[in-house]
Design brief:
Length: about 400
Amino acid sequence: MNGQSSLYIHIPFCISKCAYCDFFSKPQGNSKAGDNSFVPDNYVSSLCNEIKFRIKQNQVKELKTIYIGGGTPSLLTKNQFEKIFNTIKSTVKLSTQCEITVEVNPDDVTKDLLEALEECGVNRISCGIQTMNDAALKKACRRADLSTNRNALKLLHENWKGDVSVDLISGLPGDDEKTLFASLNEVSEINPSHISLYSLTIEDETAFGKQLNSGALKYDFDKADNLWLCGRDFLEAHGYKWYEVSNFCREGKECLHNLAYWTHADYLGCGSGGTGTVYNENGEGLRWTNTQNISDYIEFWDKPSLTDYEKLQKVQNQETIDLETSEFEFFMMGLRKIRGFNSSEYEKVFGKVLPEKFVSLFNFWEQKGLCEKRLSETGAGDVQYCMSREGMLFLNRFLEELC
């Protein structure tokens, strides 16, 4: 910990669960955004207490990025947003260029919400559009339909002064190349600074996973992979830089918060289900994951005392990231970036040169045209290591061989 960090805040409440979602969230049924009873006030109070504790415990002097995700953070009320940001700003300094992102659902986007976020200092919104195909939205159990998505994009375009990131998923059941291109075309019309294009992943415990395993859902994974490639090519042709496996941006508009994860930087995780990791001088780390039992989380953090902090392990799982695991995670996350990483970045984290096992495997893949080595853009004679354009599609296989 060098005094700087990033902060992730988890809001685990949502109205309903999407068919593809495997993030921790608690569906709350039919409630409206802005309803004080939707995200409990005592959850927000508990969250604020944890934020203060994590910042002080880890001796954080400055935050580089803040990201509020979920769940559905856009269900917080204006007063709840204000309480969270007042807590942060009264506890720690924000860097002059601090990126502050809040995830929003399309059906929660209103002028009032945008004004409230702007007043809190939010400068980046991530909107989960997913697709502009009504049939696919319905199959995915999205709250928003096509009309709602269009209204959200219009409101963001006309009323939001900060950066906009849009999430899209290729390969949703009911989607094809025609509908994907239609979605990309319509989204790009508002010129968001950032687009995340994810290829649908079907996990066993999701609704789609259960449908697939029962035979109720037929799915062509090869077709879905090709569909994502078409989406990637479309975005690049329309001026978006492919800078990470699933992420594209206008020049200089990379997501700084995610870059913290991908560059092996410290981050604090707060909220029920939140995860944080801090590293020491030799590259080893400490990682915690908060309990997903929201009642236990609130009970512990609502009125904490010094004695309670000694019992912290009751509401979090904690693990030590040993040197071998930390090194593997450095390669795994670093190679997700199209630019990869350079040798001095590794040496700065671990205090030693790259291990022979990595260099040997990299050289072997380079001979196959799947990895690339070049002088770093730092101009200091460092070597830049990255996957080739084709090799990026086989990153998981490379990591398996590295294990």
